[in-house]
């Protein structure tokens, strides 16, 4: 699979979200950060905005729920128009049941891990997922510096995916830019969330293309990429 770039609207102009979504229509997904000021110390947007975005763009929505009680709220984001919904395992009461419910409603089910959360305890859950998100910053705010110490975790996760022969996307989110995306791809990531690296550029669409090219080149030269 070619690298996928998901621009994060957390770095977009919230007063012009429809225009900002159209500015990156060459992207694979539009990443929507939902924060509740409880699970993370920030408050962003919710179901009504996702409904509006789904009507304003043909780019599929990748909703990242940084919220408490995702078991209750995640299905509503599928109904609002999200094509992929990510919940944090640290907040989910029943992650397997939730992943199955998201899938049953017609969306891709994804699970996120905070930087300090190891992947190994969740090895048996991986077949229930369509994507796993490794946070490469602490969730809650955009514009943070990439945490290099997450690279070994990305590699270990890629090894687990290979071990079980899973068709599981591996997403990274946080500090992804032209200077970090190649390291993430070499380690095993294939889906990349980029906020300021896209929306802070003079030409967001060109920034998406440039990031994808860097990731594809790094994947082609990576040992895991040969069999991907």
From TrEMBL:
Cofactor: Fe(2+); Zn(2+); Mn(2+); Co(2+)
GO MF annotation list: D-ribulose-phosphate 3-epimerase activity; metal ion binding
Reaction(s) catalysed by this chain's protein: D-ribulose 5-phosphate = D-xylulose 5-phosphate
Organism the protein comes from: Streptomyces doudnae
A GO CC term attached to the entry: cytoplasm
Function of the molecule: Catalyzes the reversible epimerization of D-ribulose 5-phosphate to D-xylulose 5-phosphate.
Alphabetical UniProt keywords: Carbohydrate metabolism, Cobalt, Isomerase, Manganese, Metal-binding, Zinc
EC identifiers of the protein: 5.1.3.1
GO biological process: pentose catabolic process; pentose-phosphate shunt
Record text on cofactor binding: Binds 1 divalent metal cation per subunit.
Protein name: Ribulose-phosphate 3-epimerase
Keyword ATP-binding: no
Gene: rpe
CDD domains registered for this protein in UniProt: RPE
């Amino acid at each position: 699979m070619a690298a996928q770039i998901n621009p994060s609207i957390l770095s977009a102009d919230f007063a012009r979200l429809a225009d900002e979504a159209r500015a990156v229509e060459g992207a694979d997904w539009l990443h929507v950060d939902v924060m509740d000021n409880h699970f993370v110390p920030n408050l962003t947007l919710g179901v009504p905005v996702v409904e509006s975005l789904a009507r304003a763009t043909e780019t599929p929505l990748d909703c990242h729920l940084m919220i408490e009680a995702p078991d209750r709220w995640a299905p509503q984001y599928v109904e609002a128009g999200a094509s992929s919904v990510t919940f944090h395992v640290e907040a989910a009461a029943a992650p397997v049941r939730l992943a199955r419910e998201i899938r049953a409603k017609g969306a891709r089910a994804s699970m996120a891990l905070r930087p300090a959360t190891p992947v190994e305890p969740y090895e048996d859950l991986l077949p229930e997922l369509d994507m796993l998100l490794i946070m490469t910053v602490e969730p809650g705010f955009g514009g943070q510096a990439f945490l290099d110490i997450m690279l070994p975790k990305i590699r270990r996760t890629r090894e687990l995916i290979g071990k079980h022969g899973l068709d599981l996307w591996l997403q990274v989110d946080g500090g992804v830019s032209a200077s970090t995306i190649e390291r993430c791809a070499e380690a095993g990531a294939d889906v990349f969330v980029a906020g300021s690296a896209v929306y802070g550029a003079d030409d967001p669409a060109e920034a998406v293309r440039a990031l994808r090219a860097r990731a594809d080149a790094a994947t082609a030269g990576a040992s895991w990429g040969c069999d991907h």
